[in-house]
């Protein structure tokens, strides 16, 4: 399952996020999203884990404080589904 992790502190390192999520299972892949022009973190990323482990991580970490910010952790939506939710 692909997990969206939002509201990350901009100073967070990949190692810190890995440590946080590995408490709930094995990370298959991880991508911290950065700004194309500046290379700075954009405050969100994606983690792929086995379904049961991903569910446990989502339940345990969504809404928790991490580096002074409240994490938003949920199942990632496919790109097409994301744009379909807009109603303008």
Describe the protein in words.
The chain is an alpha+beta fold. It has one domain (2-75): 2-Layer Sandwich (Alpha-Beta Plaits). The protein is built from three helices and six strands. It has helices spanning 14-21, 51-61, 79-84, and strands at 2-6, 27-34, 41-49, 65-66, 69-70, 72-75. Strand 2 and strand 3 form a beta hairpin. The longest helix has 11 residues, at 51-61. It is globular, with a radius of gyration of 13 Å. The chain starts with a strand and ends with a helix. The model has no long low-confidence stretch (mean pLDDT 90).
Topology diagram in text:
Elements: E1 2-6, H1 14-21, E2 27-34, E3 41-49, H2 51-61, E4 65-66, E5 69-70, E6 72-75, H3 79-84
What keyword list fits this structure?
6 strands; globular; 3 helices; two-stranded antiparallel ribbon; Alpha-Beta Plaits; alpha+beta
- Biggest pleated-sheet summary: 4 strands, antiparallel
Mean pLDDT: 90
Low-confidence stretches: none
**How many distinct folded domains?**
1
Shape: globular
Assigned CATH architecture: 2-Layer Sandwich
> What name goes with the CATH superfamily?
RRM (RNA recognition motif) domain
- Please report the total strand number as a whole number: 6
N/C terminus separation? 30 Å
How large is the radius of gyration? 13 Å
User: Which range best describes the helical content: under 10%, 10-25%, 25-40%, 40-55%, 55-70% or over 70%?
Assistant: 25-40%
Strand order within the widest beta sheet: 2-3-1-6
Strand content: 25-35%
Series of H and E elements: EHEEHEEEH
Structural class determined from secondary elements: alpha+beta
- CATH class designation: Alpha Beta
- Stated plainly, the CATH topology is called Alpha-Beta Plaits
Q: How many separate helices?
A: 3
């Amino acid at each position: 399952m692909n997990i969206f992790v939002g509201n990350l502190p901009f100073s967070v390192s990949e190692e810190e996020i890995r440590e946080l999520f590995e408490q709930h299972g094995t990370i298959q892949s991880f991508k911290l999203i950065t700004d194309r022009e500046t290379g700075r973190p954009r405050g969100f990323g994606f983690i792929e884990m086995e379904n049961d482990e991903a569910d446990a991580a989502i339940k345990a970490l969504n809404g928790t404080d991490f580096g002074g910010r409240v994490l938003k952790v949920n199942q990632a939506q496919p790109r097409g589904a994301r744009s379909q939710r807009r109603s303008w």
